[in-house]
What we know:
Layout: H1 12-27, H2 29-40, H3 52-65, E1 69-74, E2 88-95, E3 98-108, E4 126-128, E5 131-133, H4 137-156, E6 162-170, H5 178-186, E7 197-200, E8 208-213, E9 215-224, H6 239-258, E10 276-284, E11 301-310, H7 316-333, E12 338-347, E13 350-351, H8 357-370, E14 375-379, H9 385-392, E15 397-399, E16 414-416, H10 417-436
Parallel strand pairs: 3-6, 3-7, 7-15, 8-14
Antiparallel strand pairs: 1-2, 2-6, 4-5, 5-16, 8-13, 9-11, 9-12, 10-11
Helix pairs in contact: 1-10, 2-4, 4-10, 5-9, 6-7, 8-10
Amino acid sequence: MLFSAKGDIMPREITADIERLFRRIDTRRDDLVKLTQDLIRFPTVNPPGDAYEACARFLGARLDARGARVDYVRGKGEPDDTDLHPRLNVVGRFEGGLPGPCVHFNGHIDVVEAGLGWTLPPFEGVVKDGRVYGRGACDMKGGIASAIIAMESLLDEGLLTRGAIEFSGTVDEESGGFGGVGHLARNGWFDKGRVDHVIIPEPLNPDRVCLGHRGVWWAEVEITGQIGHGAMPFLGVSAIRGMGDFLTLIEKELVPALETRRTRMPCVPEGARQATLNLNSIHGGQPEPFDGLPAPVVADRCRLVLDRRYLIEEPLEGVKGEIVALLDRVKAARAGLDYSVREIMTFAPTMTEPDAPVVAALDEWIDNLFGRPAEHVASPGTYDQKHITRFGAVRDCVAYGPGILDLAHQPDEWVGIEDMVLSTKVMAAATLTLLRRETSRA
């Protein structure tokens, strides 16, 4: 017998349907594993965006075979979209017979490079000890497979009687998502009149619901000085020394200040509950790579790329302003120095309310299947929720899926088969709960 998160017995009709749904998913275990393997075998490495089209069309063919309306949407004009590496996304929609809400599953098909340190082939989908191994296994091809099997199981049991279910396989999440979910959201695919609830099966652990993420401000700081002879550096103004002054202020003043700022968002791991700053790269003086004889000049420019993760409690203008204030002090202390700041990428923090409909539905079935309340978390880094809530204006959006967050982008990345089965059940049951709730689009 199944119980709600409040301990009440579920209505008989729902209970019978859910029990059938779960039995169906149990019979699809091998198919779930095979689909995960098939997806891993597409080496959709970003950059540059290899095998995007092949993977998108593979997913589209599967959705089409089950009766979905399938659209392929290319991110024309978006960063890195070329004829050699087209940013091709796929969207499939299944319609019920009666009006109702739409539940949308979104998964990114791109993965990071394999890198070094693998003991198993990264693009073969090796099954071993109850796990599927490969680049993207947990981030997030196992999640995509789970979402698709959840949708297909609902169809197999004839449970899509009202509303709609959608799936989108999108590109470029690992590089900002502009050609993927960003493009779809800006072009109406996540409008309120079309989509009501969104589940993104990112690997945040299968007993957690991820409500949102911290904000990010990427910027390039360039400090300029005056070129001079290296034998007479006093006749020039070293931009590298100016950058050193800036870094000293960061280490002595800004970093300690950031460590005192804490957020109400349930960020994981614990260190992400504070504001952070990472220095991505720095370069000044002679061009790199340097393998010849030195040039006797004073460096007249030095560039630094910084990655500032900011909290929902921090205003963006304040985040930028404290960097500029430090640069102003550096400029004032050394005659002949100047600076500029170029923004690279900015995304605001976002967090869905913990009592939102999609959260409540997932909470209920996590509690039932795992025997403990769902943990609400927020991601330390951004993911495609940023585009859905910002451009699509669908606030009822979360990340939920199989996989352990710490394994993402690591060598020998894997996803647990049992975790995928349980997550598939959670997603399928939560979808049915949302579809059968009387929800007005008004």
